Amino acid sequence: MAQIKKINTPLTEEIIESLHAGDRVAITGVIYTGRDAAHKRLVQTIAEGKPLPVEINGQTIYYVGPCPAKPNQAIGSCGPTTSGRMDTYSPILLDQGQKGMIGKGPRNQSVIDAMKRNKAVYFAAIGGAGAVIARTVRKAQVVAYEDLGPEAIHRLEVVDFPCIVVIDCAGNDLYKIGPEKFRQA
Amino acid sequence: MKEISTQKITEVVESLCLEAAYNLGQDVEALIRSGLAKEESEFGKYIIGQILDNIEIARNEKTAMCQDTGITVVYVEIGQDVHVVGGSLQEAIHEGVRKGYTSGYLRKSVVADPLFKRINTKDNTPAVIYLDMVPGESLKIMVVPKGGGSENMSAIKMLKPSDGVDGVKDFIVQTVTQAGGNPCPPVIVGVGIGGTMEKAAMLAKKALTRQAGKANEDPNYARLESEVLEKINLSGVGPQGLGGRVTALAVHIEDFPTHIAALPVAVNINCHASRHAEAIL
Question: Which of A136, B152, B221, B267 could form a disulfide with B216, with the two C-beta atoms 3.0–4.6 Å apart?
């Protein structure tokens, strides 16, 4: 298995071009959370030509709805949710300059096309490892759509957040390459 | 006649919500551990290792193992000679869920209306409650927090009797392998065969709560379970869908008599965090 590459957000084009499907990375910096409900609002706001509540350009969105933090925690359990539900919205945000996505599970062709067109990268975090991942979050703060509860947009400060590059900016897709290697029937 | 108070029921449901979210059953953990030994993919081994670390952290720190602490399914087996006193049984269960998800710092994942007003109810209620009346004077409560990612990959099909064993096998294998990495493999697969449409779905859900990896007592169904499991694991989907040998940890099939025209098959998928906790009052 590949060495772990340490990378920082916001992701530059140079970093993105250096990442390949199958690389393990440790991400440090600021990322934003967003799931179905927040994506729907962001995309509606863009369609109406209004300003977004957070700057998406250059940013990374983590598909997660965390558990509430206990008094001694920055955040509760916070593993990824299924990314496919964001496929309708992601191409629009990628065209607005979003550079990174973190989630779990495959993406459709229109997302992959938008990633190639805009030089973006998609990472997988381990689904169901929410308590492990929570340890890499130093600070969490709701910055938009507070009424959505766990689906609100949070700003997270993470240190060495463990991920795998699953779709790179050339469109290589570990969800296709990986199972192909092990398929026996 | 035995009297059980609604207050007691609320307390028990509250503590079962926490127990289920923090502490994965030893049976499921043992299956995950055995998956680590079978896995050949480097990513697969790394992922299963992280899942095992996560189980340990959640248990020791009393924190949710997964942020998706589910919609709360509650099975109640109520003895015919039990008298619930102090209010409504159902309301006592909802109150237990409300308290558990608040005091346990669990995520509230329920919206009030599925289509028009998807507004979070902020306390994870209502629970999905199934009541079953049985002989005796005890009350058994099982709390099953069910995650959305794996639930979304579940399916039901009304097969024709002529589709037979092969038709059933193909439907189960297709449902699990087409789900790919979405339901957080390695998964546990609950299958209901027979009954009516909703009965098959109920059997599939209940099958998820069987002791993990325990075979059906009927040798025909036990063989079907192991053949389907083998076929799923030849697909190459692997842990988290990134390729590998261990896509499913177990296949649990439950069956029920059915109509002469029918062969309903339901597949309910659970992620590796296959959670449930029960108590008998």
Answer: B221
